[in-house]
Amino acid sequence: MVGCFLAFAKSVPLGSFVLPPAQPILQVQDLAISFGRGAYPATRGLDFSLAPGEVVGLVGESGSGKSVTAYGLMGLLPHGAKVDRGVILWKGQDLALTPPKKRRDLCGRHLGLVFQEPLSALNPVYSIGEQVAEIFRYRAGLSRAKAKAKAIELLGQVGLPDPQGAYASFPHRFSGGMRQRVVIAMAIALSPELIIADEPTTALDPTIAAQIIQLIQNLASQRGAAVLFITHNLRLLTGLAQRILVMYHGLIVEELTSFQDLQHPYTQGLWRALPPEPGLREDRRLFPIPGQAPLPGEEIRGCAFAPRCPKAQDLCRLTPPLLRPLGPNRATRCHLSR
Ligand SMILES: Nc1ncnc2c1ncn2[C@@H]1O[C@H](COP(=O)(O)OP(=O)(O)O)[C@@H](O)[C@H]1O
Ligand SMILES: [Mg+2]
Fold it and tell me: Is residue 62 within 6 Å of ligand 1 at its C-beta?
């Protein structure tokens, strides 16, 4: 059965892998964010960087800290959350040292966030068009007429069939997929250099989800933007991401450039737990990962995955493993990996 799983894993390539340019636009170093005065750590020391034009996947089970990471990067942490340590550098500039108004302007202009639930990102009492045009009016300083023209053009670019009609419509009249297109339009309105897409397809059916992924991919490649694509579904990243960061309980536990040779037992577990691809007949059983991630604030001595890991030894339970480089853009946080 394991042989069957490995054969399946090896048959699935990631997106065409290109080495990122030397100069990242975003560098995250040892980022730790917690709720309740450090009592509930949501991220426990993240290190990664993003270069222009690359699509990077951030994957992990629910509660692993993906959204908190996204909000932390955007400077939009919810009430009660705070950065305990670490640095976020935007083109070498430390965002923590940037005055709040400047940071809001910088993030609003250069970073675009696509929220998981489009309905909560849209205001029900304003028309779709007003909400998109507002970005052009107040952030780019365009006149009312120009902002409206730009908004209609953008609604067309994200694939809404009747952009003029969409402009005057209200969010509740749109399907989930159409709302998500509007939210993407708002995120890319000012041509951000980094698009953070936080589970943008989770609420959508598979056909619409595939269209939304294609849209994000096209927009990013046309505009040369970097994308941080957040998902709990490893399979979504197939053919999309050039690199994948696997997150578990607030830490990156593996960095991948292909689904071959998965080293961390958690990543192997995520892969083996994937349901078969729709339309493909795969001769394999599903193996859900047993147990659950530690609760927020639960004390952990060694590897946070050890209680669920089929290979765990005493060392794993006692000593936290470090993220060990295995090659270019390849690393794992496991005592037992080669
Ligand atoms: N508003 C909040 N108040 C308290 N804890 C929170 C809040 N939002 C998230 N958390 C906690 O932070 C951790 C990471 O959450 P989150 O980033 O939303 O996970 P993911 O997006 O990976 O599902 C979880 O333990 C969650 O319970
Ligand atoms: Mg989330």
Answer: yes
Residue located nearest, by CA, to atom 9 of ligand 1:
68
Global confidence as pTM = 0.91
Domain containing residue 234: 2-125+170-332
CATH code (residue 203): 3.40.50.300
Q: Which residues of 221-244 are buried (b: 16+ CB within 10 A; e: fewer)?
A: eeeebbbbbbbbbbbbbbebbbbb
Q: State whether the beta carbon of 34 lies less than 6 angstroms from ligand 1.
A: no
63 Cβ below 6 A of ligand 1: yes
- 271 or 204, which is more confident? 271
Q: Per the domain annotation, does 140 fall within a domain?
A: no
Note the pLDDT of residue 22: 52
Handedness of CA 14, 118, 98, 219 (dihedral sign): positive
Q: Which ligand is located closest to the Cα atom of residue 63?
A: 1
Q: What is the pLDDT of residue 283?
A: 63
Atom of ligand 1 nearest to the CA of 71: 17
Decide: 60 in ligand 1 pocket, CB within 6 A: yes
Residues in the chain: 338
Q: How do 55-59 and 226-231 pair as beta strands?
A: parallel
The verdict on residue 141 lying in a domain is: no
Residue 66 has pLDDT above 80, yes or no: yes
**94 CA → ligand 2 middle, Å:** 25
In a domain, 151, yes or no: no
**pLDDT tens digit string along 267-280?**
999 999 988 776 66
Higher pLDDT, 11 or 149: 149
